[in-house]
Write a structure and sequence with these properties.
2 copies of one chain form a homodimer. The mean pLDDT of chain A is 96. Helix content of chain A is 23%, strand content 22%. The radius of gyration of chain A is 21 Å and the shape is globular. The first copy, chain A, has a single domain, classed as Rossmann fold. In chain A, helix 4 packs across helix 5 (209-219). Chain A contains 7 helices and 10 strands. In chain A, helix 1 links the parallel strand 5 and strand 6. By secondary structure, chain A is an alpha/beta fold. At the A-B interface, strand 1, strand 2, strand 4, helix 1 and helix 2 of A face strand 1, strand 2, strand 4, helix 1 and helix 2 of B.
Chain lengths: 329, 329
């Protein structure tokens, strides 16, 4: 059955944040631009742009939601995370477009179409490249520690895992390098993005995007209509920031399964719980949706790619609708 | 006046090409995932995916063109080139969507959402970062050699230049690093993309994308309905490849202004002219559209961002329509 076409007003993009940075003292080089063509001399010294972020929007002709949905990916990933799932199903971007939201999908600083700046000249350190084993066994919780194997037939996923492991390589192909030193730059770019949204926006984040989204709400509570955090890998420190600023900003936390089986998550989740508690104590509207506790088992860290991705998105949509943030049904 | 909404069937993406590559012998590291969070040990050794390309599609509910339009960016850029212009006008992606084409915008290997692989482990050399001076004075032909200045008020563009120089920094922000060593990987990914287009496709390229597009047509003439090359920076060698394979594949070359003022272009264009001559000699359908010779002066190398970008796109559309590749008017 063919779905109803989307009525799209505009598709486009822009970069936000960033500054001119100077490269100096680098040796001259030569560059082959095109196979078989001439070699050109290149002076790599000069001004470049660094710290910018890429934002791609799809604006509907008749959006139903009162504010656009900003979709912020996790570490080592890009906005492609929100598009088609690795096994070829429509992703969350299409889900929320069909639900009547304008979508703004970012590639954070240093990733994807944001570009990146040279190290050690601009970024002080080298990036990390996500390995298959780390993705499988640790960050994305596809299988228990020790279960990764290069031969797909010998990989052992978690019992009941909902990630389509037959498409693991397609998922891994979405990875991009990441740095550990650019959190401040990235936060500034996200904050600048919100300043471009005069009617405010709903911020939907995944993983490393979580702390950026929660902090962006603190930095501009008047611009953030709600924060939805999927498996956030960090949160503001309640000793340093005042959760009471967020009494008008509802927060939804969504958690997948197997969190107590992986060191990264065992070490990471308590910090988010502390911020959740601070929000609750300050009288904010906070929902902590632990999917397994709600009877939905088997979700990996790649919630938006799991085989029940639409069902999870529908829970988010319902939560937004209950707060009058999804428009008419 | 509001434009008519697009009727969109689907928006999505996939990666194509790529292989598993192993990283070995790297020292263990520690990684801070999120500001204020715990530090995690990281083993950077293991399998990664390298050589993949990103492709984002917008499929219309009722496309008019008989084949989709593949849009291949130039060196040091991403698919963002085809989106909104630096001064905020709709770009060529929207132009051709409105004209009834399904669009497939790529980020080539090593760029944008394609991700990139570590050097020197996978890529033998370090990348180049585009400097403002090189972009202004050489590749993009915004001003003559010596005319770049960090102070916008003191930059001296070419007389009659059609690029919106007030938005130069926004344009430079679209830049991403590039390597000189990945042409074969990139060609393979483009070739693989065409194998995913069973009804064939129209290939539209810019700059470094030019040689990839012209070569992709040679590698799979049955899949390529036409090749449109904007300011191509390279072409196949007529001594090595048989232009006669392309008798059923019409070719359009479009050239901007100021080509004889910039060393890169003075050195580069003859190779493309040789391929144009080989195509002509073999009896192919070749159009060489030299815009200044046709009375259209002032176009930079960023034809799709110049202030007459829609007029240039309309010339391309007309050329396609004359070959029954644009559908009903």
């Amino acid at each position: 059955m063919a779905a109803t076409p989307l009525l799209v007003r505009d598709i486009g993009s822009f970069h936000v944040g960033g500054r001119i940075a100077a490269l100096t003292g680098l040796p001259l080089r030569e560059r082959l631009s095109s196979s078989g063509g001439p070699v050109h001399p290149i002076d790599p010294n000069g001004d470049i742009v660094a710290g910018q972020m890429y934002v791609q929007y799809v604006q509907l002709a008749e959006p139903k939601a009162p504010a656009p949905l900003l979709m912020w990916h996790g570490g080592g990933m890009t906005g492609a995370n929100w598009e088609t799932t690795p096994d070829g199903r429509p992703g969350w971007q299409m889900f929320f477009l069909r639900a009547g939201f304008d979508t703004y999908v970012s590639d954070a600083v240093e990733r994807g179409r944001a570009g990146w700046a040279p190290f050690p000249q601009i970024y002080p350190e080298a990036p990390y490249f996500r390995t298959a084993k780390e993705a499988w066994e640790e960050t994305f919780r596809f299988g228990p520690p020790g279960s990764w194997h290069p031969d797909p037939a010998q990989r052992r996923p978690h019992d009941g895992l909902r990630f389509p492991v037959g498409c693991f390589e397609a998922f891994l192909a979405q990875s991009v390098p990441r740095w550990g030193c650019n959190n401040d730059l990235t936060q500034r770019a996200y904050d600048a993005l919100l300043q471009r949204m005069p009617s405010g926006a709903i911020v939907l984040t995944h993983s490393q995007g979580g702390n950026f989204g929660l902090t962006a709400a603190l930095n501009a509570p008047e611009r953030v209509r709600a924060v939805v955090s999927l498996d956030p890998s960090g949160a503001p420190d309640p000793e340093a920031r005042d959760a009471g600023l967020l009494r008008d900003v509802p927060h939804l936390f969504v958690w997948g399964d197997f969190l107590d089986r992986h060191r990264f998550w065992i070490n990471t989740r308590p910090g988010v719980q502390r911020w959740r508690d601070a929000l609750s104590d300050a009288g904010c509207d906070v929902t902590w949706l632990d999917l397994p506790a709600a009877g939905i088992r088997g979700n990996s860290h790649a919630l938006m790619a799991d085989d029940n991705s639409d069902a999870i998105a529908a829970l988010v949509l319902q939560w937004l609708a209950e707060r009058h943030l999804a428009g008419a049904a």
